[in-house]
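Can anyone check this?
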Amino acid sequence: MTVWKTSLRNFFAHKGRMALSAVAVLLSVAFVCGTLVFTDTMNTTFDKLFTISSPDVTVSPENAGESDEQPIDGKPATLPASLVQQIGKAEGVKRAEGAAFSMAVTVVDSDNKNMGSETGAPTIASNWTQNDLRSMEITSGHAPRGPTEVMVDADTAKKHRLAIGDELRTIAVTGDIRAKISGITSFTVTNPGAAIVYLDTATAQKHLLGAPDVFTQILVTAESGVSDTQLKKNVAAALDGSAAYRLQTQQEAADANKDDMGAFLDVMKYAMLGFAGIAFLVGIFLIVNTFSMLVAQRTREIGLMRAIGSSRKQVNRSVLLEAVLLGIVGSVLGVAAGIGLAVGLMKLMSAVGMELSTRDLTIAWTTPVTGLVLGVVVTVLAAYIPARRAGKVSPMAALRDAGTPADGSSGWVRAGIGLLLTAAGGAALWATAQADKATEGSGLLAIGVLLTLIGFVVIGPLLAGVVVRALSVVVLRLFGPVGRLAERNALRNPRRTGATGAALMIGLALVACLSVVGSSMVASATEELDKSVGADFIVQDSGAGRPIVPQAAEALRAVPGLEHMTDYTYLKAKVTTPDGRTADEGITATDPTYQKDVRRTALSGDLAQAYGKNAMSVGEDYAEKHGVKVGDTLTVAFAAGETARLKVAAITSDDTNIDRGAMYTDITTATSYMPADKMPQNVAMFGKAEEGKEKEAYAALKSALAEYPVYKVQNQADFKEDLKNQIGQLLNIVYGLLALAIIVAVLGVVNTLALSVVERTREIGLMRAIGLSRRQLRRMIRLESVVIALFGALLGLGLGMGWGTAAQKLLALEGLEVLEIPWPTILTVFACSALVGLFAALVPAFRAGRMNVLNAIATDG
C-alpha cells in the first residue's frame, strides 16, 4: 500500500510532465481503436446489405463465380430464362424470378456527366424484382414499365440532383439505353456507395445481357416454414442435380460476398494497424526518455527511500506503477478518441461518396480491451529500463546529487552491439541489391531494414556525439556563445539525445524510403515510355476496368487525321506446350499496327510473323520454362471459344515493363476461333496521328469520346503526368498516416526539452545571474531543439535513402531500372525538421524565460 501511495503521489506531482507521454499513448491507442471500429463498422454495413438483399436461394451459372466483376466481353454469364418456371414448380418455392444485371455499364445524364461513384464502388444496371424490396423501397414515382423508363437510387439522385422526368443514358456493350426517370428508390439499409439504375425486365435482358431469353440469376423465395437448406435441396432436385448451375442459400451468398469484400477490408485494416504500430514504437522512445529524466531528477528522493528501508524491488515497483497509471489514463482517453476518429473517418468517406451510417457503428468488446492492453503493456515495457535504473540508486545518493548509477563499460557494449547490428543490416541490404530474384531479395530487404533500424537506435548515443558536433559547426557556431551552450546541452546526455532523435528518425526514414521508391517508379516508367512506346495516344477506362464499348470504339476509328487506331484485347485460354503441360494463360490479341505502338524486341524469330494466320509469340521466360522455341506449335483452347493450334513465330524479350511476358496473336486469328457474341471488347486502343496532325487528332479523339466520359484519351505527356499523380496520391496517403508517428516524435522533443529545463533549473538561474538574457536563454533552448531535430532527420533520411535504394534494386528485376533520389523532397523534409525543432521548443523556451532567477538558484532540482 505504501508503494501504491508513493506512486500515486509522484504521478500527480508530475502530472504536467506526464501529460505529453499520455498524449503519445492516447494517439497510438486512438489510431488502433479507430481502425478497428472503422473496419468493424464497414464489415457490419456490408454484412447487413449482403444478408438482407440476398434471396432464400440464388441460382447462378456455375462459372459466374470465376468471372471478373467487369466481364471483358461486357456481358455477364447467363442461364436460360426457362429455368424460372422449372424452379418455380419445385416443392417449397413461393416465388422464383429472374434477375438481369450488369456492372459493365456507365450511366450518364443529359450533359454526359458520369453518374457513377468516384470511390471505386460499382455502377449497377438491373431489372426491378420483388426481391429488391428486401433492401429497398420506392419512395417516389414508380418502377420502370417500358424501355423509355428508368428508376434510380435515392443516394445517386441526391448526389447528382436528379428528379423524376430527367433523362439518363445507360451505356452497355449492346448499345445505349435512353430513358427518363420514372421513380426513385431508397435503401432501407446503408448503401456503401454503389450507383444503381433499374430497367424493365425485357430491356435489361436485351441491352445488358444481349438476349431476350436469359437471366444472370434466378432468385428463389421459400414458402413459410421451409428452411433455406431444404429449399436448396428441392431446387437442386428440380434441376436434376445439373452441375451447370451453382446454388447458394441466403447465408452462403452473403458469405461469398463478404469474402470478396473482406480481402479488401483486411488489407486496409492491417495497413492502418501497421502505421499505428509505428506510432507505438515512436511513443516508446518518448516514454523511456520521460521516465529516465524523472528518475534522474528524483535521485535524492529515491536515495532517501532506500535509506529508510525501501528495497530495490519496491523502488522498481513504484516507478512501474506510475507507468501503469500513465498507460491506463492514456489508453482510456485513447479508446474514446479512437471511437471519435472512426466516426470522423466515416464522415470523410461519406463526403467522398462511400456512405457509412453511424447507426451501424460497431464497437466490439475486444476493441477497448485491445486498446487498454496495448497501451498499458507498451507503457510498462518502455518504463522498465528507467525503473530498473531507479532500483539501483544507493542510499548514499540521498547525501549527494549523484544521479542514477552509470556503468562506463555498458556504453562500449551498447556501441559494439549497435555497430554489429548495423553492419549485419547493411550486409543484408547489399545482398538485396545483388539478388537475382525479387522473391529472394524481399526477405533480405526486410531483414536489412529491421537490423539497420535497431542498429541505429542502439548506436544512437554514439552517433549523437559525432553528428551533433558536425551539425553544430554548420548551424550553431553561427550564434556564438549561445550556440555553443546549445551544443553542450545537446551533447550533455548523448543517450537522451539519441533516443529523442531516434523517435523522429523512424518516421522520416519511412518517408525517405517511400519517396525514393515512388520517384524511381515514375522515372523508370517514363524512361520505358520514351524507349518503347511509339503510339501518340492511348484510350482506356478511367479506373474501373470497363471494356471499351463497341460504339465508343467505332467513334474512335472514325476520327480524321489518324494514321491508324489499334485494337487491343485480352483472351483467357488453356495453353498446351509441346512437352504436354497445360496451364491457364492470357493471350493478348491486337492489330498488326501494335508493333508500331509498342516496340518489343524479338530475341528469335520475327514478331511481324506472329500476326500471320494461326501464329503467335511468347515471352522469353515462358519459352525458357517450357522449352518452347520458334517453329513449335502450341494448342490454345480459348475460353468460350474453339481450340486452335498456333505456331510460335517469335520469342520476345521480357526486359520491359510494358506487356512483360505477353503472348501476342493477331486479333483476326482470335476472332476466327471465338463466337461473335463472346469475343472480348477492347481493354485499350492505341492511336498514331498522321505526320504534323498530332494536335488536331488529339482534340478530335477527345471530342469523339465526349459522350463516353469514363474513357480518357492520353498522349504520352498525359500518361506520364497521370502516373506521377497516381503514385503521388498514394504517397500522400502514406505520408498522412506517418504524420501520426512524426507528431508523437515532436511530442518527444517537447517533453525532453521541458524536462531538461526542469533538470537544469539551478544552472539556468546561475547563467541568468551572470548576465544571460531571457532572449538568449530562449534562443539557446530553441537551438538545442533544432539540432536534435536535425540529428534525427539526418539519420532518418540517410537510413531511408539506403532502404529505398535497396528496394529499387528489387524493382529493377521487374523492369523498373531507374534509381532516382528525390532531392527536392529530401531537402524540404530536412529543412522542415528545423521548423519542427523550433516549434517543439516554443513552450519549454517560454517557460524557461519566465523563471525567477533567485528561486532557480535556490532550487534543489
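Reply from J.R.: I decoded it. Residues 402-409 have pLDDT under 50 and may be disordered.
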